[in-house]
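Box 3.1 — From sequence to structure: NUDIX hydrolase
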Amino acid sequence: MITEPNWLRWAKQLAALAQNGLTFSDNPYDIERYEHLREIAAEMMAEGFDLDRKSFLDLFAREEGYATPKVDVRGAAFRDGKILLVREALDGGWTLPGGWADPCQSPSEAVVREIFEESGFEARVRKLAAVYDRSRHPHLPAIPFHIYKLFFLCEITGGVAAESHETTGVAFFAENEIPHNLSISRTLPFQIARMFDHLRHPALPTDCD
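Predicted structure (token representation):
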């Protein structure tokens, strides 16, 4: 079930069509049409987000090649049955540590890096617990990209709690202690609950949309 508004879904589809067309077209008339299509997508997003149209045109112009979803990795790292959460500096909400996957790193390498950078803890990946399509879950606010969210079950192997320029808190929480002020742009309550399910039942298959 798609939870994001139709205007955003349509705008993202138009932007992707325009990007793919500009990548593969040599015909100047087609290029002109795809550029116009990109302008329409930018206008739709500017209207929906109540932001300047040029900001979205600049955003689209930085995207090159065939349009694909972006990848966000999240680490559900446990110690003594409690889950590691970090408090985001940007919105003050708690979340599973994570962020964008980087080129030339495997997804598991990326999530281990993110856990260390945001919390100070070293971790080892045990399994891929879930692959979620962000647009199919009630994350807020809406954003102009299509995103796949990869959740990994991890165990702490070393390190000490350390805040970073991205985080203002690092702590472990039992399942009945999860903070109410989550950073729901990044992590939803049911996703954390599902990670506890995977901890209790290691043989559970990977969740996917």
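Summary of the box: The first strand starts at residue 70 and ends at 79.
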